[in-house]
Amino acid sequence: MNVRFMILLMVMSLVLGFSSAVDFRLRKTAGFSGRFTRAVSSVVFPVHGNVYPLGYYNVTINIGQPPRPYYLDLDTGSDLTWLQCDAPCVRCLEAPHPLYQPSSDLIPCNDPLCKALHLNSNQRCETPEQCDYEVEYADGGSSLGVLVRDVFSMNYTKGLRLTPRLALGCGYDQIPGASSHHPLDGVLGLGRGKVSILSQLHSQGYVKNVIGHCLSSLGGGILFFGDDLYDSSRVSWTPMSREYSKHYSPAMGGELLFGGRTTGLKNLLTVFDSGSSYTYFNAKAYQALKRELSGKPLKEARDDHTLPLCWQGRRPFMSIEEVKKYFKPLALSFKTGWRSKTLFEIPPEAYLIISVKGNVCLGILNGTEIGLQNLNLIGDISMQDQMIIYDNEKQSIGWMPADCDELASLKAAQCLTRKSKQSQLYHKYLRCRRIHLLTLSTLKEVPSFSLSLFLSFMAFSYSLTSPSPNSTLSYSNTHQFLNPSSSFPVSLSVSSPKNTRHLRLLITSALNPQTGQPTKKASTGSDKSSSTNKKRKKKGKTAKPVENWELRDSEDAFEEDDDADYSNSSRSLATFNSPPTIPKPPAGFVIDETGRVLMASKKRIATVIDPTNNSPLDCVIRRVFTSSKGEDCMLLCPVDTPVQILKSTNIDGWSAVSDEEVESLLPAAAYALAKIHMHLVHSGFCYTARGGFCYTEDNVFDFRTDDGQDVEGLPTEGVEITCFHLDGSHYMVYTPSDPLLFVAAKDQNGLLQIADDELLDDPAVISAIDEETEFNALVEEEAALLESLLGERI
Where do transmembrane segments lie in this chain (predicted)? Predict the structure, then answer.
């Protein structure tokens, strides 16, 4: 973003203040508009899965109103995105989530997207009001259904939310493929056709027509739409074929190299296909590869049927590193011009796996045997640990080595660590006021313009008066560096069509250079030692009147000191509005009447012990108060994410799991959480998960009965963290979106005990909860305002 624009926006803030199923006629008898605008950011999705043992990569897409999460397979080899659909469903497969409830927005047969879907077929409009489809895959799987439009919820990398209406398939009749053994909600079509999700987003002006993915060999990765996540100069590019317009295929056939030497096989028609777990060569290339691999000091493991060709050693192998020495790298060489070529390298770790039996298996298969004819597919195994980019605007395919696991971690780091909805907003509250925990001594090497970015947030509750609603603002910085013991001027100019008003802010350190302690506010009178209090004139020009104010910073975290005059050590600023009443902050934070943090305690964690199993539960102290009977009490919130396991009832929804059944599900739940880098904790009083995960308000869904009432024993709202299958049943690990609060009181021995029902009715307890609610309401309002400002800035 332009730095000048950011500064202007920040300083302006200083001046202006801071389902039910729908009955369809779906059975077969056996366009978009929108002006294109410049895409300002990319859309990034975390990817889950691996090549082995899971055999797939997928992403979570939120679809519908209200939005619901669905797990979709990444497939750059096909265009259509479809979900298993309750229309009702004739034949549906095991799925992680309840069936998609389709919208009533049917796409008619004469729609341009329907025509594009059937471009190479003689499709007749037997039912003009709907667009029927049937898609078949190379492994024999298929989906039959109709096209509908619905809302897709996603976020730009810069935080702005978008909710486009996109076409997708409502699949009411699915046949599984021979190689498809994993549960799925549907397929995310990422091909080059007009009906693909990327093409639709591009046609509506949301993103550039570029897609990419980075699949980690350790599992997971990212999928992205847009072109601002990579440096094009570091990418190896090859032109995209115009003949095979529906697939991501290099324009020139590839030459197969083994160990850096040619195999004599050239002009290999190649397609990059993320929907295939393994790589497929045509019969000639496959046989040539087998010949090159023969003669290894490894014995063929004929009893291992993980893949068609496996080898065993004297003892089971633990990793590819142990066997790399027996195998040579592969490469496909593609022409990029008359004399230039580019290599797509496939090292041993990108075509081998270690089976559960400890054997090494070849992850390149014979594509001719499954009907691929002369086609060669580059599958997930050979695209691991590389960023693969499909640039439809420049008609190019690119790749470069990448740490996909790190990229996935960076994507997760963009999201706040999840504890609860309210605690997440509270962390936003702290960030907005982080300036109060900074001092000039910590910023002594920061240029003046950088400090101005903090100033706008420090004075968020004040507003300067301006001569006219049509005033414009200009800012000048002096480009001098800060010194802990010096004053620092910031100049502002507020201009209207009739006049200009010059303002000068004088920032002075609140620290005494000799003692390092907070200084008291000076007695009434002007500061004659400050040269910035004098009016200045430029040579040959008469200066406008300059109005001066003094702005003091606060110390990092004030110690408790009864003698310190905190009320008088606050900043002074020209003309300001009276700030609203600030709700009482959480325990450990002391603020003044303007909302400025005076003290922040580091001792904000308490541990309570569950007497039934002696397990601890670490909690954040939210409130400290005294009950009506004089008991010392605390309002606590778990540090980690509280979780509960629900069982799918298929179409009807979800049901709670009994305590007895939960115990048998914990190992599977722990494994499911580990796959998304979360750790199941056997805490006291409840189960918790340690780690962070990303979600938006669109991911929050209600738990209600058919009559609209809250489900007994379940919070009203929750967020799905992950899901898993066990013994033919589907389970969800979820967390309530509202915080799980505990009231604890100290017993006679000074130990914290969870309060009984009688204490929960105490007026002091009710008052503490009300204070927490009021505070969180303020935080939520400010977070919404900040999000709105960021959205307008983007």
Answer: none
